[in-house]
């Protein structure tokens, strides 16, 4: 049988594509389990070009799936519905299965209202989906499969819940079959935040992969060219002993990778931050939610302001970018509570922040409260909406006020950001000096060439980048810092200064194509074309260098070499 596993596109463009545009790791687990049981299984990411109707139709026609499994959360459910309808039009016999968080909590809604959906899988889906596929293949009664919903005549029924997988390592390693960047060590979260569906979806007990399973996965992916990973657990550092073991194995195997993780402010300390930094962690995201204790209580975010402050201070000390998540627009939100959040932001000095308006999703305690308070049924999801914003129903809140709150928060953060970056205090430990330099130069490039560079709300970006690069070089001769300073000098038309800093960099990194190119461009700007060629021709086979080599020969009047290089790279 041919099984197509799909992550459908969302209704709206995403502000943070890294959070929503990536295939969930669960689809890869399912795909690996299917492959190990003899099925032909492929994964399709419906975000981006492959999610266009024409491309989807081409994929369905070429692959000829017998079963299509959809990973559904609220924002992409309509993409899944439309694709299921398209698949049924092409092949009425294809079986369509909705799984994921939205299918778990809206299973009867989907089966009641959308004929193109044949089955739902609730909760953990690997073995439930495998058994369902086997039943479909044999033509057996699916009622024996635990953890699914389906139609029986005019009735919508569901079977007994599936048993949670006690030993996550019994699942085949998806990295044997697929290439991806998002990993998960755990399933579940001990927190009970009112806006989060994780506790109900995964159950009350947090389960863990072993360190070997997790690091084996990293190593397989590293060997296929993946160098940066997102560790997407709700609380990666929940078990300190396990994380320390993982980091030790990363270091022992010499994986030379970088990665970002998510944690809680009460689940980190200096020892664990030191170890994860040495093992390649460059960013940790923390759910702060609000500076108002009243708002945190409403969200059931059981964190004190002191714990939050300590976590952010420690994270920065070890050269890890601390990112903060904030939620605003809760019941009772006022200019004063927003002011408390801004005050906390200025205390904890996050180097990245994401601000969300309070959303309401099925499977959360907040959704239960929302339905009771405003007498809303699941039929609200028949509308083509991605989510429900609490303020849209709360008579004490209005759109203009909430949008003004968001603008006030973002403005305060962006205006303060250069000061946050410049005031980072790093731990005084000589063995961490190269990592501190790496951290500072990464942060510098974010201001000058990365996400912050195009943000007009942030002042003094170029100045901040230069300060950070020079601080980096005070710790260690960092490649990125030399490169960043060289480019900044070029932008200012200070080519002589660029040459001087790049000469220093090339002493340490003579084989760096980026530094050699930057040096060559600086020399070209000074009219020193012959000297520029000495740097460019070290990489005579590089397409990146070809344009500049040709320009140098043209400036020197060397038509023969100009033509030779033009022919060499023509059509590449």
Automatic annotation (TrEMBL):
Its cofactor is [4Fe-4S] cluster. It holds the Pfam family B12-binding. This is B12-binding domain-containing radical SAM protei n. It comes from Desulfonema ishimotonii. Residues 175-392 form the Radical SAM core domain. Keywords: Iron, Iron-sulfur, Metal-binding, S-adenosyl-L-methionine. GO terms for molecular function: 4 iron, 4 sulfur cluster binding; catalytic activity; cobalamin binding; metal ion binding. Residues 3-143 form the B12-binding domain. GO terms for cellular component: cytosol.
């Amino acid at each position: 049988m041919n099984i197509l596993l799909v992550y459908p596109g969302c209704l709206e463009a995403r502000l943070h594509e890294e959070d929503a545009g990536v295939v969930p790791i669960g689809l890869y687990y399912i795909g690996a389990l299917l492959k190990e049981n003899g099925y032909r299984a492929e994964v399709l990411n419906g975000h981006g070009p492959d999610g266009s109707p024409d491309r989807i139709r081409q994929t369905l026609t070429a692959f000829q799936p017998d079963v299509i499994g959809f990973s559904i959360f609220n924002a992409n459910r309509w993409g899944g519905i439309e694709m299921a309808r398209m698949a049924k039009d092409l092949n009425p016999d294809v079986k369509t299965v909705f799984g994921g968080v939205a299918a778990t909590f809206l299973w009867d809604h989907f089966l009641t209202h959308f004929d193109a959906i044949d089955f739902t899988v609730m909760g953990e889906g690997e073995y439930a989906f495998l058994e369902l596929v086997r039943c479909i293949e044999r033509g057996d009664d699916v009622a024996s499969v635990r953890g699914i919903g389906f139609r029986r005549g005019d009735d919508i029924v569901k079977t007994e819940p599936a048993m949670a997988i006690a030993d996550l390592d019994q699942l085949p390693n998806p990295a044997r079959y697929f290439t991806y960047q998002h990993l998960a060590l755990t399933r579940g979260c001990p927190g009970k935040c009112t806006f989060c569906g994780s506790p109900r979806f995964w159950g009350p007990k947090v389960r863990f992969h072993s360190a070997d399973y997790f690091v084996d996965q990293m190593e397989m992916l590293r060997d296929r060219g993946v160098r940066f990973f997102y560790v997407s657990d709700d609380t990666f550092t929940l078990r300190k002993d396990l994380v320390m073991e993982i980091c030790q194995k990363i270091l022992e195997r010499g994986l030379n990778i970088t990665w970002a993780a998510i944690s809680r402010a009460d689940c980190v300390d200096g020892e664990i931050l030191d170890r994860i930094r040495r093992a390649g962690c460059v960013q940790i995201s923390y759910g702060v939610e609000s500076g108002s204790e009243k708002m945190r209580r409403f969200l059931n975010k059981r964190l004190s302001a002191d714990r939050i402050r300590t976590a952010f201070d420690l994270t920065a000390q070890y050269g890890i970018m601390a990112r903060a998540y904030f939620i605003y627009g809760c019941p009772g939100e006022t200019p004063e509570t927003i002011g408390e959040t801004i005050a906390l932001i200025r205390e904890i000095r996050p180097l990245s922040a994401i601000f969300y308006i309070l959303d309401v999703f099925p499977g959360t305690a907040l959704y239960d409260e929302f339905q009771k308070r405003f007498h809303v049924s699941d039929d609200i999801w028949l509308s083509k909406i991605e989510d429900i914003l609490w303020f849209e129903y709360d008579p004490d809140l209005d759109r203009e006020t909430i949008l003004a709150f968001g603008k006030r928060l973002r403005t305060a953060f962006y205006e303060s950001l250069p000061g946050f970056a410049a005031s980072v205090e790093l731990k005084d430990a000589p063995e961490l000096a190269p990592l501190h330099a790496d951290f500072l130069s990464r942060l510098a490039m974010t201001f000058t060439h990365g996400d912050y560079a195009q943000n007009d709300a942030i002042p003094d970006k170029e100045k901040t980048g230069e300060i950070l690069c020079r601080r980096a070089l005070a710790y260690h001769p960092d490649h990125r810092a030399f490169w960043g300073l060289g480019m900044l000098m070029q932008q200012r038309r200070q080519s002589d200064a660029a040459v001087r800093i790049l000469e220093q960099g090339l002493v340490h990194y003579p084989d760096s194509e980026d530094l050699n190119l930057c040096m060559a461009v600086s020399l070209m700007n000074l009219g020193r074309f012959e000297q520029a060629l000495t740097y460019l021709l070290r990489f005579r086979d590089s397409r990146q260098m070809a344009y500049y080599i040709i320009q140098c020969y043209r400036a020197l009047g060397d038509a023969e070499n100009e033509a030779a290089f033009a022919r060499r790279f023509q059509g590449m």
